[in-house]
Amino acid sequence: MPLDFTAIDFETANSSSASACSVGLVRVRDSRVVDTASWLIKPPPGHDAFLEWNVRIHGIRATDVADASGWSEQLGDLVAFAGDDVLVAHNAGFDMGVLRGGCAAAGIPCPRYDYLCSLQVARRTYVLDSYRLPVAAMAAGFEGFRHHEALADAEACAAIIVHAAGRHGASSLGELSAAVPVRMGRVGEVAAAA
After folding, report:
1. Which residue of 4, 9, 67, 171 has the fewest CB atoms within a 10 Å radius of its CB?
2. Domain 5-181 in CATH: superfamily?
3. Type and span of the H or E element at 33
């Protein structure tokens, strides 16, 4: 079974899990990046305040998303890109929380995905002073990216998983999960559409 997955990263306008303002997606097939996508998201009313702290981190402002579509209009594009893949994210609890939070705020079912956390994989693969994404990505040979830009972060996450799989002799996410070991999680209630 080849190393196939979709890496995902969200940026948020504030501390609400429903405040996604951008997403980055990276499709990996047989350990190689074959497609990428990213777009801005307009957070829903009640979750749309852009806090200065978040803006300082990712640089996205309310004016940047003024003409962007909202969560419910864009979820289909995310699901179409990811298909039936296992999702991979760095500190996956955050990103899966955004997936759940966005769906809850929009009043729509959260698509069901299995997921693997590259932060947990990095902690069991490398000996580092920090396991923050830029440091773990550097250990995987992926450096010089713009941290907190959703697509760049998803690319870094994908690089960590591919490198870690090579280090552990794993040819699939299931093998990597078992070798490290890190348990895969699951998010959502409904089957994801391809």
Report:
1. 67
2. Ribonuclease H-like superfamily/Ribonuclease H (3.30.420.10)
3. strand 32-40
